[in-house]
Amino acid sequence: MTSGDRRRTAADEVAGAACCRRPVRLWGTTVEPGTGELGGRRFLVACKDRRALLCPACAQRYQADAFHLVVSGLRGGKGVPASVAGHPACFLTLTAPSFGPVHSRPATEKKDAVCRPRRDASRCAHGVARSCKVRHEPGDPRLGTALCARCFDYEGAVVWNARVSLLWQRTSVLMRRAVAAVGGLTARQQAEVFRFSYVKVVEFQRRGLVHLHVVVRADGPEGSGDPPPAWLDGPTLLAGVEEAVARANVPAPLGESGGTAVVRWGEERTARLLADDDHDAVASYLAKYAVKAATEEPGLVHRLDGDPGRALRRADPHTAALVEAAWRLGVRPELSSLRLRAHAHTFGYGGHFATKSRLWSTTFGALRAARARHAREAAGASDDFLEGSFSYLGRGYFSPEADGLAEVLAEAIATRPRRVPATSPSPSSRGPYGR
Ligand SMILES: [Zn+2]
Ligand SMILES: [Zn+2]
Ligand SMILES: [Zn+2]
Question: Ligand 1 centre from 24 Cα, in Å?
């Protein structure tokens, strides 16, 4: 093969795996359409990783799918009727409480606002100043790290992360109850009158705590095609949501170590009704966060399979302290249900990063299947594989030239501007404190 041939083959390989940085190599048994004769062929499948840090091409497709999934539940499309735009919907951002002061950019527009201004020169019990007069730039590595590591409750933080999915479940039950009470409905009657659909994206703040962005929509009992009763208007929905968020709590089994005994939402939270012209901005905002990883720390991309020491070699002390707290607590019998060692690399959080209720809109699976069908039709390829005959060969391309090309492309995709506009959905929604 000439070098030109090799380049062309490599380009075909990379294009065939949709520019994935590290595709999966599979072997499949084929069936000859006319004769039924069996054969075999190796092929590549894109990794479909959600995290832009790992695979920019797959993450970008995920981001585009997330956008369509969210926006179709707000203004229709992908099988959802356009009348859904008339259902009341609200957008919430829910954060964790404070587990100790961290370096941050103040959420004010004041130009000279510093991290932690204080007139007095007080110090914590460990002799560390309680103030920080620095105006941190956006990329400052100190952002989100503790002012005093010994004052920061790392154990409380990882237990909070581990409990947040349950806290959200509890919140959604209380939401339904609060709104049912306005309509004079019992829990049983409620299900026949209205339902809530939601889509939620989990994001890590710089301080290592998760932070939820949720859209809640009120429907009739049948979902997106069924309007809620007239009395269930926007203000009623918003009041119910706010009441539920304020009241929701779940116990944290953090017995004798003295951390938070009850897990609740922090004070830094927002809830507002969505207007028609918010739909695209909210969908792109959620989609943007859906592709973020917990941390940029390369050692913490996957589950840790042994002592975290090696993975944490290059981590900053704040990140390391969170992982170590999860690892340490992971052996406690009273915390075994939290599976903290399995989730130490995500600081205790073990849930999904983008979730939706069943009747929100379409699914990621449906969007992917439609794209695969379209690609097959465009390529004129027939599906000649014998079902269930696939076996795993490994990761990466067949040729080193293709691996090299995919790496160059990944770099280019990661640094070029995003196709989906990454605008903030409201002028007032600057990141909450501690980002
Ligand atoms: Zn990929
Ligand atoms: Zn600071
Ligand atoms: Zn201290």
Answer: 9
